[in-house]
Amino acid sequence: MRTKPIIIILVTTTLLGACVSYQPSIILEEDYFNFGDVINGEIMTYELTVSNKGNSPLEIESVSTSCGCTTATLEPMTIQPGEKGTLHIEFDSGAHGPELTGELVRQIFIVSNDPNIPEVMIEFTANVLLKSSP
Description:
mainly beta; 5-stranded mixed sheet
C-alpha cells in the first residue's frame, strides 16, 4: 500500500519538472527618472541596468525613442540568464531650438523576446530652461 503514494508523488514531481519552461525575463532597474532643471542646449546622459531574471537568453530586438532629441543604446543586445546589460541614454535639450522651454516628457522603448513583456518603456522628464543672458 505504501508503494502507490510514492509512485504518485514521483509521477507528479516528474510531470511538474517537465512543465518548467525556459524563457527570458526582462527586468528594469527603474522605468522612470527625472533630469530636473536643464539649460536649453545641454546634453544630458543617464545609464540604467537591464537584467535577465529568466532561464534562457534575452534577445533585444530593438531600442527606440519617442523623439529625435533622445538616443538610447543597450549593451549587450543579448543578455544571458542572470546577467545584466547597460542602457545608455542621451538627451539633447537644445534639439528643438533655443526657445523651447518647460517640462518635457520622453520615452525609450525596448522590444525583446520576453514572452510575458515583449516591450518595456522607460520614461524621463526634464524641465528645460532658457539660457541666461551674459
